[in-house]
Specification:
alpha+beta; Beta-Lactamase; six-stranded antiparallel β-sheet
Length: 137
């Protein structure tokens, strides 16, 4: 019996394929609601720093993330990704905020990481939302 290819392209199937592709390049994704001060983290097995809780307040996420950033980049990281700064950037019309910093992995190794926060919109809410893509360089 021949399988109809259109039947294989369900929303769940497409989401699974897209997740696989995205996680190959960006093993850590964070969905943040800046208005509500919340976040949820999605990570694949091969991201090198996983000290943050899977969910919590966005402010705590930045503090926890800052503890893994090399001293020379801590101020840049904290200033760039503070909720206050991200809300200002959104208000100015930015579509993303991104930096490259040095981060200490769970294994004690220092690595350059790229962090890009994209502002996204939810038709159901006026909240300011970000999706953060994180990868080792």
């Amino acid at each position: 019996m021949e399988t109809n290819r259109k039947e294989l392209l369900t929303d769940d199937h497409l989401n699974s394929l897209l997740n696989q592709a995205v996680f190959k390049k960006y093993p850590l994704l964070i969905l943040g609601n800046l208005t509500q001060n919340t976040y949820y983290m999605l990570t694949s097995e091969n991201f090198t720093s996983t000290k943050c809780s899977v969910a919590g307040t966005f402010d705590e996420l930045i503090e926890s993330g800052c503890s893994t950033i090399h001293d020379m980049d801590k101020d840049l990281f904290k200033k760039t990704f503070s909720r206050e700064n991200l809300l200002k950037e959104h208000e100015k019309g930015a579509d993303k905020v991104e930096i490259r910093v040095i981060q200490e992995g769970d294994d004690g190794q220092l690595r350059r990481v790229e962090i890009t926060d994209f502002f996204v919109e939810d038709k159901e809410s006026d909240d300011v939302l970000v999706v953060s893509f994180n990868r080792n360089m």
